[in-house]
Amino acid sequence: MKTESNNYRMLKNDEDADARMLAFFGISGILSVVAVSVLLLAPPADLGVDEGKLAPNFVSQAYDTSWSSFELYDHIDQTWTEGEEGEWVMLLFIDTDCSYCFNAGEEHSDMHSAYASNVKFFTIATELQLPNHDSSKKEIVDYKEKNDNSGCKADRTNCNQRPGDVHNWPYIDDLDRSIADDYDLPGTPFYLLLSPDGIVQWNSQQSSDLDPFGALQYHVGGGA
Fold first, then answer.
1. 25 in helix, strand or coil?
2. How far lies 214's CA from each of 50, 83, 107, 196, 202, in Å?
3. Which of 111, 150, 174, 213 would bridge 126 by S-S if both were Cys, CB 3.0 to 4.6 A apart?
4. 21 in helix, strand or coil?
5. What tens digit of pLDDT does each residue of 67-123 get?
6. What does the alpha-carbon distance between residue 89 and residue 172 come to, in Å, rounded to a whole number?
7. Is 34 a residue whose pLDDT tops 50?
């Protein structure tokens, strides 16, 4: 009788262990399905306009020496073919309150100095949806021109302290984020290099193995 009792307890323990194991696998399976579903349903991360795609047109106000209307497609030639002469286009997306953009000011000056003869530079000043990122058209001008304005870098730094020279190319107003939305802006700074026909040849988010200078050198050739 004692042996039968022991056998019964062992059998009962085995059954309990099996039940726990089945419950474990059941819960694990459910969690796996949930995890996969979350991954499949989650929106993909923004990467900007894909390389090989035509950059979307946009119309806005741009500041060079004064504010005036600007349309991107006025600056590209969709009939251009590879091998022909033509001006490339570098789009630089910044936020005047972005520390990384501010610190890249000298690199932007150097790129323009090296490539302005065959590349058109346009900085698109947008506004990230972050605390203390509240730019203005005046702040865009002061950032570009290095004027006295304590509002840059989220009110932490005077615009006249921005590294680099005055940026002698157009700055485009995107404070309403319409261009950023059309371009699936992943963040700032962000760069797109367009061939003369407006096709994205380099996207800094997709081809992060190249920096902006490297992309210009690779696609356009040696700078000045």
1. helix
2. 18, 21, 12, 18, 10
3. 174
4. helix
5. 999 999 999 999 999 989 999 999 999 999 999 999 999 999 999 999 999 999 999
6. 14
7. no
Letter for the amino acid at 209?
D
Residue spans per domain, the chain: 1-42, 59-219
Return d(Cα 153, Cα 104) in angstroms, integer: 12
Residue 19 CA, distance from chain mean position: 51
Residue 23: predicted pLDDT: 55
Burial pattern 168-191, b for ≥16 Cβ within 10 A else e, equals ebbbbbbbeeebbeebbbbbbbbb
Task: Check residue 68 and give its pLDDT.
Answer: 98
Which residue(s) pair with 157 in the sheet? 152
- The CATH class of the 59-219 domain is alpha beta
> Residue 3 — very low, low, confident or very high, per pLDDT cuts 50/70/90?
low
User: Is the dihedral angle over the CA atoms 169, 172, 175, 181 positive or is it negative?
Assistant: negative
- How far apart are alpha carbons 78 and 30 in whole angstroms? 52
Say how far apart CA 193 and CA 122 lie, in whole Å. Answer: 11
Q: In this predicted structure, what is the pLDDT of residue 11? A: 46
pLDDT tens-digit readout, 117-147: 999 999 999 999 888 888 999 999 999 999 9
Nearest to residue 143, comparing CAs of 129, 123, 128?
123
